[in-house]
UniProtKB/TrEMBL annotation:
NCBIfam families: HAD-SF-IB. Gene3D superfamilies: HAD superfamily/HAD-like, SG protein - dephosphorylation function. Its EC number is 3.1.3.-. It comes from the Bacteria. It holds the Pfam family HAD. It comes from Pontibacter toksunensis. Keywords: Hydrolase. The keyword Ion transport does not apply. This is HAD family hydrolase. Signal peptide: none annotated.
Length: 205
């Protein structure tokens, strides 16, 4: 349902640390290790790439490609099957109940609900088969020679805004609400912006 000005009203949220209380990239790794214990060896490699990222020695897209090396040699269909099982264990117990209630109310009012996350679409998609929203954008990857390569840029910062714009494909829209656990571009573009701190929703500005 569009607003009186003909614009689609949109509420945008980040996933990790926001709607999902934890970090999906870390928790999904732990889950994969339960399926393939030998992949525990990737843990130290992941710490190395995290350190490089924190020291700004590696681009966000490059970080994503290397952090998710723990998925090497697992075919996309199998990753999706694991992800479905993972989210069935996590949802709804480890999600922000107050935020879910807010999204449900906005849905009833006709506001579009959109998730923009840095997580890989490959493992995020099964979540939104369970909790339906109007659209989502994550980091896109393709499987090549046993590993996952990022398509374009990681879904972070301005890339999130670009993906939202592409989703609406020329239709007029405005971001009426945005939610994240840290300062980012989607908050600055929203009419009302909120941070999630200790599972509580607090005004950003």
């Amino acid at each position: 349902m569009a607003s009186s000005e003909g614009e689609i009203k949109v509420a945008v949220f980040d996933l990790n640390g926001t709607f999902y209380k934890k970090s999906s990239k870390d928790e999904f790794y732990k889950f994969i290790v339960t399926k393939s214990p030998k992949r525990i060896g990737y843990y130290f490699q992941m710490l190395y790439y995290k350190a490089l990222k924190e020291m700004h020695q590696i681009r966000k897209t490059e970080f994503k490609e290397n952090f998710f090396n723990y998925l090497d040699d697992i075919l996309p269909d199998q990753v999706e099957a694991y992800a479905k099982e993972f989210w069935e264990e996590e949802y709804p117990a480890n999600f922000n109940e107050e935020l879910k209630s807010r999204f449900d109310k906005l849905k009833e009012e006709g506001t579009h609900i959109y998730c923009a996350t840095g997580g890989l679409e490959l493992y995020v998609k099964p979540l939104f088969d369970m909790y339906t929203i109007n659209g989502f954008a994550g980091t896109r990857v393709h499987y090549e020679k046993g590993t996952y390569k990022v398509i374009g840029r990681a879904c972070k910062d301005e890339e999130k805004l670009d993906r939202i714009k592409a989703h609406f494909d020329g239709k007029p829209y405005r971001i009426v609400e945005a939610y994240s656990d840290s300062k980012e571009a989607i908050l600055d573009k929203a009419e009302k912006a909120f941070l999630i701190k200790d599972d509580k929703i607090i005004p950003y500005r």
